[in-house]
Structures are given as C-alpha cells and as structure tokens.
C-alpha cells in the first residue's frame, strides 16, 4: 500500500469506539464485528446442511454443532488479535509481511469465495420469495436495493447495527425448533449415538466442518476491527464478542438440525432438502403453511442478507488493502469510489447472475467444494501472520500454538475431504 494512502487512511478516519469507562460499557462499545461475522457464518448453505443433517441422521450430528464452537472461536480470535495489535486488515498485513504477490494470491482466493458465497445467499433470497409466489425478478432487485441502502451511508456504526438487526431474524429458527416439539429422551440418546464407521455419516461430518470457516469471514472481521479502530485495551471485550457470536451461530445451526430431525427426520427420512423451498414445504405438515413459510423464511432471509453484506464488504476491504485504494465505511461514497464500487458490483452482479441461473442446487454444491479447497490457504496465511506479524508478546507460542495448529490441521483435512465426498452426498 502506498505510504501516502496509508497516512491518509490513518488521519482521515477517526476512532469509532470512545475510551469507555467500566467493563460493561467498554464491551458494549466494542461489541459488533464478532457477532456480525458469526451470524453471517450461518448462511443459506449452512442452514441447508444442518437441515439435511437432521433429516438423514436425526440428532446424531447435534454434538458436532457444539464441538464446532471452540473451532470457530480459535480461528476468528486470531483475526481479532491481528486487527487490534497491528491496526491492519488481513490483505494489507499479508502484503506487508509476505509481499505483493502473496497478497494478490490471498485476494484472488477471497474473490472466488465471495462470488460463490453471494450466489448462494441470493439463491436463498430467491427461494424465500418463491415460497410466496414471487419471481426472482421481483425479490432480487428489492434485496439489492436494501443491501445498497444499508452500506451507502458512510458510517460503520449504521452498517454494523443494520447487519445485526437483519441477522437476528435467524433467531426464528429457535421458534421452529421449539414448535417441532422434539422428544428430550430421543434427543439425548441420539446426541451420543455416533456411528463413526458409517461412511455416509463421516461424509456429512466432514461437510459440516468444511463449512465452518469461510475466507470472507477472516477478511471481514480483521478489517472490521481495524476500521472500527479497536485498540489493545479493547482486546478482552473483542474476544468476548467473538465467543458470544460463535455460541449463537452454532446454536442456530443446532436449532435447524433439531427442527428437521424432530419432524421430517421422523416421518420422511428419505426426503430431499436441497433448496429453501423444499425445506419449508417439508416442515409445513408439522408447523402449518403460514407459520412454516413465515418463520422459516424469515430465518433464511436474515441469514442470506447478513452474509451478503459481510461477504461483499470483505471483498471491498480486501482488494483495497492489497491495491491501496481508500477503504472505510467512514468515508462517503464519492471519497472512496473504488471501495463502494466493489461492494456495489458484488451485490448487483450476484443478483443478476442468480436471476438467470436455473440450477440453484448445483450452485450450492459447487460453493461448498470451493470453500473447502480454500481452507488450507486461508488458515495457513492466518497462522503465519499470527507467528510473524504480531508484537512478540501477543504471538502464538507454547501450548496454545499447538492447539491452533491441531485445530487448523483437522479442519483443513476434513474440510477438503468433505468438499469432495460431501458434495456427492448433499447433491
């Protein structure tokens, strides 16, 4: 990044978080990036995967959803650490540490992952509209206008609050799980009945793990932390923000799994649930048409919209960090034309492509495979930065370093494995 652009970035954008007094006030001021990125993690593809897990295996994959909480936290906590103690976004830090060539490699991977994610999210939005007989020609333009209106305000605070508000619609899945009236005894028994030797089960385990870490999550949270100007004194509160988000997103996944296991899994275990419409229709006999469509649709819409915001901003930030253009939500659109231009291109392009793409099922499968293959690159850069770019006192070392390496190795191995084998199972 050119030095003049860096200086302009540092002086023009004022700190967003005031020097808060007291732990509670400080936490509330810092709160946001972790929750937003975790709500986005429970995107449309993840919802479909959780639903299929419940239908095909009952409650046998429920324990996995809880075990994924620390994995999510370990990975995203590194982005918080890097953002706070370096003040740099992910792409910028790779450029400064490893050089422009590697920075563009990371940006290319981010671009591919973002495009795939946006197509998945907008396919979910289109699916919700189709529940009510609305064509994509109506729902997708409305979604694009809403997403552009959220971001084209020149304010990080407003974007963050809007993203959290939209993402909280995912809480509708908790109502769906409650309305399904799961049998507590069957739930407990199934949770600990794990068929390790069944290949189909292992495939779905791998697919769930492979969908946990998305490249755009890493870029978004580190860039959001830097854009929000969080400082070392905010580190503890920012880690709690990430931990709370990790718990919430996996509980949402568990709710979808429980709802589908208690209903469709009991009555129609061979049902094919590859789209939002199929899942909602399968739940209709148990929840009623009106409640099933409205509540389930609200959850999917919240998941898809918040993920679209996060993925698009991640690419706009990431390219800016590598190319050196102005990149902050504190700038007005005319002050950061490239930043807002990339975001707009992502939203409009995603809507247009999904509007003409006929096969949304194969689209979701392809995105799963792509994200799984990118995991080794994403986690490799993240751990390397945590070892080299951080101040010595905050670098990964000792037992925690080995924990992070083990988590990354297992996630990458099962993610790549699930990307191929899970695609065949889920398709």
**Tally of individual domains:** 1
Strand content: under 5%
Overall pLDDT: 82
Number of helices: 20
**H/E element order:** HHHHHHHHHHHHHHHHHHHH
Helix vs. strand class: mainly alpha
What's the total number of strands? 0
Assign the CATH architecture. Answer: Up-down Bundle
Low-confidence stretches: 1-13
Could you list some keywords that capture this structure?
mainly alpha; about 425 residues; disordered N terminus; 20 helices
Tell me the layout of helices and strands.
Blueprint: H1 3-12, H2 23-30, H3 33-41, H4 44-57, H5 62-86, H6 90-98, H7 100-131, H8 136-151, H9 156-167, H10 172-179, H11 184-191, H12 199-210, H13 215-227, H14 235-262, H15 264-267, H16 276-287, H17 289-323, H18 337-356, H19 360-388, H20 398-426
Describe the structure.
- The chain contains 20 helices and no strands.
- The chain has 427 residues and is mainly α.
- It has a single domain, classed as Up-down Bundle (Amino acid/polyamine transporter I).
- The longest helix has 35 residues.
In short:
The chain has 427 residues and is mainly α.
